[in-house]
Amino acid sequence: EVQLVESGGGLVQAGGSLRLSCAASGFSVDDSVIGWLRQAPGKEREGVSCISRSDGTTGITYYADSMKGRFTISRDNAKNRLYLQMNSLRPDDTAVYYCAHGSGDYWGKGTLVTVSS
What we know:
Layout: E1 3-7, E2 10-13, E3 18-25, E4 34-39, E5 46-51, E6 61-63, E7 71-76, E8 81-86, E9 95-101, E10 111-116
Parallel strand pairs: 2-10
Antiparallel strand pairs: 1-3, 3-8, 4-5, 4-9, 5-6, 7-8, 9-10
């Protein structure tokens, strides 16, 4: 059974940092496209970042324009976990962040990130 469980959200001041974690089970993170999406209050869900299958490398990463230079996606194959390091957080980064399998068929329940001004 595929499961994705996010953690690491919380309340942070603008300019601060958080590291989100996603524990995956039922599949291997290094053999999958996997990523993060978010949904802010009253807004549609949007893509944040994703990473390709490793294929013996660190994988190819993608970031939405507003996250480039601030967010970093990574994975720990041994722990079967995905991470999102978020720096220079802004109030408009406030959202529920979801970990998702690249197929689109599997999602976590999300973790709330709140950035205060």
